[in-house]
Amino acid sequence: MKQKSDLLKKEDKGDLNRAREYALKFLEYRERSEQEIRKRMAKKEYDGRLIKETIEFLKNHNLLNDRRFARMWTESRLRRNYGRWKVQADLNEKGIDREIIEEVLRESYSNVDEIQIALDLIQKKWPFLKEGNDAPLRRVSDFLKRRGFSFEVIAEAIRQQY
């Protein structure tokens, strides 16, 4: 009987090592949220216990940190000129805790002029638009909305541009 239980322990360790390797490989490309790791491993049909142990291992070795992920994601989206609402929606979708999202957005957007970013996007995408040309305003508004800007930012950017 003892040999059978030893064999099961060895099998469990093998499964755990494979689960860890899979998660580490998934983390090689970019930082991930805990939920992303959990979903990806579940999709590959890893056992719930293995997923939990793997996530704990990653956290204990500082390889998985939702706060760090949220900061990196936010900075990446800021460089690509996305508005606060889009970043918030992305982080929610990735399973980041609401308090972490609020803290990271407050820190990251504290010195950001979203209206200026929206104006720069308008001028880049529609350099031909001048005062009095109202036809494409809806397109401009829809574009900025898809980029994650609030109604207030969109309205002010359009007001300043036209």
Automatic annotation (TrEMBL):
UniProt keyword annotations, A-Z: Cytoplasm
The protein, known as: Regulatory protein RecX
Domain RecX third three-helical positions: 113-158
Family, as annotated: Belongs to the RecX family.
Entries under InterPro entries matching the protein: RecX_HTH_1st (IPR053926), RecX_HTH_2nd (IPR053924), RecX_HTH_3rd (IPR053925), Regulatory_RecX (IPR003783), WH-like_DNA-bd_sf (IPR036388)
Cellular component GO terms held in the UniProt record: cytoplasm
Keyword Cytoplasm: yes
GO biological process: regulation of DNA repair
Cell compartment(s), UniProt: Cytoplasm
Domain called RecX second three-helical: residue spans: 65-105
Domain (RecX first three-helical) ranges: 19-58
Origin species: marine sediment metagenome
